[in-house]
């Protein structure tokens, strides 16, 4: 009886250590059972707004808060987990307790018994909403930038800043192509020295070096 009591104490101590470790992770740790019920180990409030107790008393199941438009895709992608021991990463949306839509990245691994019977899925879920929003914002900004670039009335050249050499063009607009007669594909294989007159070629490396060091715009007007 004393040995059993000691064993229980050791197990409890290990559980407490693991709980402390899980709570310091930036994601929600979980186990998904064969009946699709979900045991949340830690950090569910931060990820979806529901407490561990909400999941324990089955007020909510993780499957239920996956966004309706993403649920079928999550199931289809995850079928392989039930067939063999594999790991995968899925990105999808969930509907948090407060009704907001959040993006998550779900890292999961399937586990099987020695007899090859599916046992559970162990996983950790990270909130990637801010990253997705930033990526979307950057794409929209880039789209606006390219639109303004092409609609400009002046020839615009976007050039690489390379302290070790003249570098290459990164972008040009249609006006620049029309002005000098090169295609965009041709421009992107060239640099400013390829279109500068000999007199200006001597000055350009110094100008580029100054620009790289100062980080400030330098304007100069000469023939190309």
If you had to describe this structure to a student in words, what would you say it looks like?
With 224 residues, the protein is α+β, with helices and mostly antiparallel strands. The strands form two sheets. A five-stranded antiparallel β-sheet has the order 2-1-5-4-3, sandwiched between helices. A hairpin with a 5-residue loop joins strand 1 and strand 2. 15% of the residues are buried.
Please name the defining characteristics of this protein.
224 residues; alpha+beta; two-stranded antiparallel sheet; 43% helix
Please outline the major beta sheet: 5 strands, antiparallel
Task: Based on Cα principal axes, name the global outline.
Answer: elongated
Poorly predicted residue ranges: 8-14
Oligomer: single chain
Average pLDDT reading: 82
SS elements, strand count: 7
The secondary-structure element order is HEEHHHHEEEHEEHHHH
Output the structural class: alpha+beta
C-alpha Rg, in Å?
A: 29 Å
Write the layout of secondary structure elements.
Layout (H helix, E strand, L loop, with lengths): L1 H22 L4 E5 L5 E5 L1 H5 L3 H5 L5 H4 L2 H11 L8 E9 L5 E12 L5 E10 L1 H23 L5 E3 L9 E4 L1 H7 L3 H4 L10 H4 L2 H11 L10
Antiparallel strand pairs: 1-2, 1-5, 3-4, 4-5, 6-7
In short:
The protein is of the alpha+beta class and 224 residues long. The protein is built from ten helices and seven strands. Strand 3 and strand 4 (101-112) form a beta hairpin.
């Amino acid at each position: 009886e004393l040995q059993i009591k000691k064993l229980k104490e050791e197990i409890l101590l290990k559980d407490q250590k693991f709980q402390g470790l899980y709570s310091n992770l930036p994601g929600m740790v979980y186990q998904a059972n064969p009946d699709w019920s979900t045991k949340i180990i830690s950090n569910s409030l931060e990820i979806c707004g529901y407490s561990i107790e909400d999941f324990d008393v089955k007020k909510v199941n993780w499957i239920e808060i996956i966004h309706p438009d993403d649920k079928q895709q999550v199931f289809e992608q995850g079928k392989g987990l039930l067939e063999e021991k594999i790991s995968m990463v899925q990105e999808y949306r969930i509907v948090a307790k407060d009704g907001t839509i959040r993006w998550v990245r779900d890292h999961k691994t399937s586990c099987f018994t020695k007899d090859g019977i599916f046992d559970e899925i162990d996983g950790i879920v990270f909130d990637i909403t801010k990253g997705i929003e930033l990526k979307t914002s950057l794409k929209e900004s880039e789209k606006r930038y390219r639109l303004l670039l092409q609609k400009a009335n002046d020839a615009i050249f976007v050039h690489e800043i390379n302290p070790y050499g003249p570098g290459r063009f990164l972008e040009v607009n249609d006006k620049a192509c029309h002005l000098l007669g090169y295609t965009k594909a041709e421009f992107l294989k060239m640099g400013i020295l390829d279109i500068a007159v000999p007199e200006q070629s001597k000055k350009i490396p110094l100008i580029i070096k100054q620009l790289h060091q100062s980080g400030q715009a330098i304007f100069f007007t000469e023939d190309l």
